[in-house]
Amino acid sequence: MNKSNVVVRFCGDSGDGMQLTGNLFSSLSAILGNEISTLPDFPAEIRAPQGTLGGVSGFQVNLGQGVYTPGDKADVIVAMNSAALKVCALGSKFNKQGAVWTEQDSQFKRDAVIIVDTDSFTPADLQKALYTTDNPFTELGLPETVQIVPVSLTSLTKESLKDSGLDNKAILKSRNMFALGVVCWLFNRPIDKAIHFLEGKFAKKPALIAPNVKVLTDGYNYGTNTALNINTINVEVPDNLQHGTYTSIAGNKATAWGLIAAAQKCGKRLFLGSYPITPATDIMHELAGRKDMGVMVVQAEDEIAGVCTAIGASFAGDLACTSTSGPGLSLKSEAIGLAVMAELPLVVIDVQRGGPSTGLPTKTEQTDLLQAVYGRNGECPAVVVAASSSANCFQYAYEACRLALENMTPVILMTDTYLANGTGLWRLPKLAELPAIQPQGVPAELKGQYSVSLRDANSIRYWATPGMEGYEHRNIGLERDAVKGAISTNPDNHEAMVKARQAKIDQVANHIPALQVQCNAESDTLLVGWGSTEGHLHAAANELNCALAHFNYINPLPKNTAEVLRRYKKVIVCELNNGQFAALLRSKVPGVDFKQYNEIMGQPFTVERIVEHVKTL
Amino acid sequence: MEASQFKSDQYVRFCPGCGDHAILASLTKAMAQIGVPTHETVVISGIGCSSRMPHYLNTYGFNTIHGRGGAIATGVKTSHPELTVWQMTGDGDCLAIGGNHFIHEIRRNVDLNICLFNNRIYGLTKGQYSPTSPKGFVSKSSPFGTVERPFIPAELVMGARGTFFARTLDVDMPTTVDCMVQAQQHKGASVIECLVNCVIFNNGTHSWIADRETRAERSIVLKHGEKMLFGANKDKGLKLDYSTVIPHLVVTTADDPDVLVHDATTEDPTLHRMLALMGQERFTVDGGASEHSDKELPVALGVIRNVEAETYNDAVNQQIEDVRAKSKATTFDELTATLEHWEM
Fold first, then answer.
1. Do A259 and A381 belong to one domain?
2. How many domains does chain A have?
3. A345 with A269, same domain?
4. For strand A547-551 and strand A517-519, is the pairing parallel, antiparallel, or unpaired?
5. Which of A235, A266, A283 is the last residue of a domain?
6. Which of A608, A572, A283 is nearest to A415 (CA)?
7. Is pLDDT of A611 > 90?
8. Cα separation of A150 and A148, whole Å?
9. Which of A271, A320, A323 is nearest to A294 (CA)?
10. Is residue A495 located within the same domain as residue A563?
11. Does residue A240 belong to any structural domain of this protein?
């Protein structure tokens, strides 16, 4: 059976290693030439009891060609226990008594293949998963078109490893490799490549290589030998990818690497001041491990100290960054205002999560947009950019650094849980091919005459840093004189300074690319989005045969924004919030009747829902 | 170098008679004595009267936001350890809104010179009680007297495992200059508590020890390696009384063979803490107003604790150097080559 793309969902208990299995399979598929997009779907951080509905952890991957999203619903499900089967079948209704399978709520399609561990169907297991009968399939009301592939994963794994010397607990932990072996068979993945890949993954734990390879191989052979009663699937390989060297990368790692590349490109040291917060912490983890690249990381005492140590490093001349999520962005607001006032380069990364307050720390949302654009005291403009895929987190982190250093301003980079934890195919760039970054400096003739207020022709203030003789100066968070740089409360001066700071951000529009229209540009309907929803909106626009304008630059907006938006009869702003970008566009582009499609469920869009709702608008 | 080289062209706007004028004079004198050039000296401050200090100094300076000077100074010094970094802060900026950063810069032992101007009042916001105001203190925000227990800064520094603590009086410039110079020589977080008079909102808050007539009897200037003697005629000394389960300090005569010799460098902070707390407990209760007896312990001034320990900035930079020296990949292109990758 040939398919252009297939969605696979691995689900099991939090301890079943579903994220690892999913990542291994995704990377393996990518190596074999598929485009990939992944969506890890964890339960809350604290582990629920084993085998219960609350503890089900999922990992979904879409592979093939023309992959824009992790897929709405799965073609193949790997369910490690009966609880996982239930959650997949009922979706958000898994807790509702008497609920049965419906196409709308289910996480898999009507004709899905479901590989399930039937060893997990003991009465005790079924009770933990709140089944009321001893036949889960009937109880869940699965349609007849679903193909169930029952595999005794647990006993087969035990059998496979009975001579391994591993204890029972370690053996049970390897069940995921047996499942992975079966999936590799199902997708005709060459087992030698999978083994090679596994060896690489366990390079630091050599003792685990042999047993994992054995279970994987046994799983693969089980598929081949027992001739499971299903057709294997060939996924098509895209032929339109740019030639090059590729890897698969998660958004947070791509973000960290974008910062590293920018620092090396412009010859500055990368400094990160940060404080642990879900889902941004992996950026700090990655950078803390990159001392080989000369990166300095300060794990600060709180969010405020995270941004303030970065501001100190920026004052002293580094490329300084801080990484956080919504609650942390709130705490950093005052300090970001200081960087606006002091006109210091600073990159603030906001990996958005569900809010307000502590909200939904592990879920995705686009609800910090207006906080990023406006959430500070006073007239306090800063640049805001947003990444729109896990892989292009690299590009926009790099871009955030470029704009900060060249324009002497804080830049807020918006990503979110979906991009941060998801992975995508990434073509490895060479440093030489990345855009130039020319940090603002100070002309030699200003030696002895320097003031913190002096600007160049583009109204960017000159940047002198401690250690430079003859440029000693005092920077401040208080309003300062437009020429001398000293504290000033003069009314005309204040107004002039407010306008100068705004003009500086406005002129950034001259240094960013124009807005491009994707999909059917000739349609009279335009979908509008920003940030992480690009893949879903692109797929939806293709399906609806309409146009898409997707924004990566939020403040300032691309110069042709109004011109593009006014070209269309119907303009629909789709976002994972209550209409924040729509509100921003209404204030910036008057005269357009912006319609809205919004979801605020802590989940990415599904293409199906967008299409369905947009048709009614 | 000359003190005048460190003065900026800004008009000094401290109130006439404010203790900050004296601290500014001591600081420029100390900076000249230290001899680090103006362009390698950075002065960071938060918000408050004391935080105006950077404007009056011809160095690199950054007058930041309330309470965050410690975190910003940490960023400057850690990223650029070759710079000499001073932090100017007050009892509100440092011990209330900035308390978290203060204890952590001390705990990490960042090589900073921290001048904590303690006038026991919020001056810039015109007269509210601060975390060091004595219990019962009447101010605009405590018209019936405060009900709070105040901080003793020294206790906070020692509690955060501080390696350097000194205390000075604004009016005692030689001791202030000496403490500042020693703070610079000390590698690590050096805290100088400057007892400063606020002539407008808390006039005379330190006069019970600062007044010329009583200063010699009510304070002692500690010097490393010297006997702990005080009094107008240096006729009094300090010794430990072992008659209690935990020995305590008592006043004795100068000729007592048990008079202690000050050692600021002992790792164990027990005695430093006892010395730093002298006269402080009574102060937290009545602001020093009550009758003073001859047998009462004097307030310790000078460098009380001065211990060497590894600095955060050195350790952070050393670790990066060590890792880089052992790494095969040190550039971005080398880094990407280490990834599992494939041609397409």
1. yes
2. 4
3. yes
4. antiparallel
5. A235
6. A283
7. yes
8. 6
9. A271
10. no
11. no
**What confidence score (pLDDT) does residue B343 get?**
84
| Nearest chain B alpha carbon to A198 | B340
Closest-CA residue of B relative to A197 is B340
- Domains of chain B with CATH codes: 3-223+269-312 (3.40.50.970), 227-261 (no CATH)
A559 and A490 assigned to the same domain = no
Cβ–Cβ contact A411 with B under 8 A = no
Look at residue A227 and tell me whether its pLDDT is greater than 70: no
Higher pLDDT, B343 or B220: B220
To test the contact with chain B by mutation, choose from A29, A31, A291, A433 the residue with the greatest count of B C-beta atoms within 10 A, namely A291
- Spatial contact of B90 and B117, defined as CB atoms under 8 Å apart: yes
Distances (CA, A) of A112 to A11, A300, A353, A611: 14, 48, 31, 22
A166 pLDDT band, cuts 50/70/90, is confident
Inspect the interface and report whether the beta carbons of A469 and B37 lie closer than 8 Å.
yes
* The predicted structure's pLDDT at residue A228: 62
Residue A317 distance to chain B (closest CA, Å): 9
Chain B residues with beta carbon closer than 8 angstroms to that of A469: 37, 39
Task: Express as a percent the part of chain A with pLDDT over 90.
Answer: 84
- B185–chain A Cβ distance below 8 A for any pair: no
Confidence label for A586 from pLDDT (cuts 50, 70 and 90): very high
Q: Is the peptide bond before A556 cis (omega within 30 degrees of 0)?
A: yes
Residues B28-38 have pLDDT tens digits of 999 999 999 99
* Nearest CB neighbour to A338, from listed B65, B100, B344: B65
Query: Could you tell me the strand order of the sheet in which A5-13 lies?
Result: A147-151, A108-117, A74-79, A5-13, A56-64, A35-41, A423-427, A245-250, B342-343
Q: Which residues, listed in sequence order, are joined to residue A249 by a DSSP beta bridge?
A: A424
Does the pLDDT value for residue B288 go beyond 70?
no
Residue that finishes a domain, picked among A178, A206, A235:
A235
A428 to chain B: closest CA residue: B336
Has residue A540 been placed in a domain? yes
B63 touches chain A (CB under 8 A): yes
pTM (2 d.p.): 0.94
Total CB pairs under 8 A between chain A and B? 197
B232 φ, ψ (degrees, to nearest 5)? -55, -35
Residue A470 near chain B (CB below 8 Å): yes
Which chain B residues are closer than 8 Å to A34 by Cβ? none
Of A550, A547, A554, the residue nearest A569 (C-alpha): A547
Interface touch A316/B80, C-beta < 8 Å: yes
Is residue A241 in some structural domain? Answer: no
Considering the domain architecture, whether residues A108 and A174 belong to the same structural domain is answered as: yes
Do residue A176 and residue A76 come from a single domain? yes
Q: Is A247 on the interface with B (CB under 8 A)?
A: yes
List the CATH number of the domain containing A577. Answer: 3.40.50.920
Give contacts of A245 with chain B, Cβ < 8 Å: 336, 341-344
pLDDT value for A203: 85
At A29-71, the pLDDT tens digits run 988 889 999 999 877 657 788 889 988 999 999 999 989 999 9
CATH number for the domain harbouring residue A210: 3.40.920.10
The answer to whether B55 contacts chain A (CB < 8 Å) is yes
User: A196 and chain B: CB distance < 8 Å anywhere?
Assistant: no
Same-domain check for residues A451 and A541: no
